[in-house]
Write a structure and sequence with these properties.
The structure is a single chain. By secondary structure, this protein is an alpha+beta fold. Helix content is 32%, strand content 29%. β9 and β10 form a beta hairpin. It is globular.
Amino acid sequence: MQASGLTHAISGYPLQTHAERRRAGHYRLEVVLERRAIAGRWREMARDGAILPIHADSWLDAWSATYGSAADATPLFVTLVDTRHNRDVIGLPLVRRLVGGRRVIEFVSAGLAHRNGPLIGALAPQDEPGAERLWRVIVSDLPAADILRLANMPARMDGAVNPLALLTAARPSSSTVGPVRIDDPRSDWRAGLASTFREELRHAENIFEARPGARFARVRSISEARRVLAELGRLDARRGAQDHAHNAFHGALLERGLGAGEVILTALKIGETIAAAMIGV
């Protein structure tokens, strides 16, 4: 099991002089507004690179169809190219919005995911000097904005160093997350827990299992997934917490990813009543 809670953030938009831009060397930045224009290139980069769930086709397509089509959103799918090898090295799914009268560029997943970050290709820089050269191109060649804000980035992704976390401009995020990776069977994982925690976990399971008809279920059909999402929407409405934009995004995510296996939906049911659900990518 591996766990890490520290994430990094970059905020600001430093101006670059022509001399600083020339020191960026052999990187070129390309921006497209439509994801389909770079989808194939990003898939190729991901084959031997490092990704996060937000880089999945289903996630980005769902975002583009919902949040990305909002009037105040300009999608910016950014690719950094190493011109020495003509290879894509970094992919950045970004969006520019107007926030408090300022043009802000940030990850498309801001507010939707606990971990954000670049798609890291095999030839991405893995040291600070290389990362700084890459950064000079980013801040010089991105479309005009007042603030560039990249938050909640892990320092490492799938064993690869996140170049943006190496920058002198990066700092620990104000919020942290605790991703947990379990490679061993669940029984081995449980055996490795502290005895107190094992007892608390078993107590919670006993309470759950004592409830007639209570069960966890994986939802595999899109028709059942729609029913689960609709029921959760009704529950949120009764609590006054309904978020139509989030519901639309989750619906689009399930439509695109459930059948392909990119998205997993599980539900807590009491009989046939939906009590809670979780979407994983």
